Each structure stands twice: as C-alpha cells, then as structure tokens.
C-alpha cells in the first residue's frame, strides 16, 4: 500500500507592521532618553541650586513686647535676628525701657538675620 504524503500546513500569513508604527518604535529610545535627561536635570537644579524650598530658613519671630529692651535684644539675637531700637515713646503705665511694640510682629516667619525694630517706653 502506498502512503500518501500529507501536505504540510501552510505557514500563517506574515504580519506586516504599518510604516508609522515602525518609525515610532525607532524614535522611542530617543524620546525616553530626552525626557529622562530633562527630569534628571530639573531635579539637580531643584535639589542643589535652589534648595530653599526643601530647607526653609524662615523661623518664627519671638514675642518681646513687655520685656526690658536689653532682655528683648538678647532674645532676638539668640533666635538669629538683628534687634534695632526704634522710637522711644512716653508711657507712664509701664516701666522705662520696656518694649511696647515690635516689627515684624511676634510669630511671623522671617529669614535668619532679619532686623526686628523694637519701640521702647521712656518716662513722660
């Protein structure tokens, strides 16, 4: 008996990739590299060139109203501020050399080295 050869199954038709898709795959590594370079550059500038956003140097101004001017000046220096005597106002209700007003006001946040003006009382 003669054996018949079974025909081999036909190979599936070759898939053709559209031209635009092969072009997009060709430039994809360049786009990814460019975007990665931009992000890395941005992070370097953000973290090392302008780090003030991450490490704020602002601190609260201490309350010195009601203290003697020498104590107020020392407290401001200890907190990193520069005290400056402002106006001398006649006031009989508080002892002389007592701080009546300060600018900037207490608890406002200012950078280290900011000048804080204090107005003190004098005898009328």
From TrEMBL:
Alphabetically sorted, this entry's keywords are: Membrane, Transmembrane, Transmembrane helix
Q: Which CDD domains match?
A: PASTA_pknB
Q: Which PROSITE patterns does the record associate with it?
A: PASTA
Q: Name the InterPro entries for this protein.
A: PASTA_dom
Checking Pfam families in the record gives: PASTA
The record places domain PASTA at 55-122
Coiled-coil positions are none
| TM spans (from-to) | 27-49
Record flagged with keyword Transmembrane? yes
For whether the record's keyword set contains Transmembrane helix, the answer is yes
Which protein is depicted?
PASTA domain-containing protein
Q: Which organism is it from?
A: Roseisolibacter agri
């Amino acid at each position: 008996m003669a054996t018949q050869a079974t025909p081999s199954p036909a190979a599936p038709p070759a898939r053709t990739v559209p031209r635009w898709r092969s072009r997009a795959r060709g430039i994809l590594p360049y786009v990814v590299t460019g975007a990665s370079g931009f992000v890395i550059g941005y992070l370097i500038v953000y973290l090392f060139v302008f780090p003030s956003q991450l490490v704020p140097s602002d601190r609260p101004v201490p309350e010195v109203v009601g203290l003697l001017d020498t104590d107020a000046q020392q407290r401001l220096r200890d907190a990193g501020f520069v005290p400056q005597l402002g106006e001398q106002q006649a006031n009989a209700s508080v002892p002389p050399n007592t701080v009546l007003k300060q600018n900037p006001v207490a608890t406002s946040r200012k950078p280290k080295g900011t000048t804080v003006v204090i107005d003190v009382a004098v005898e009328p």
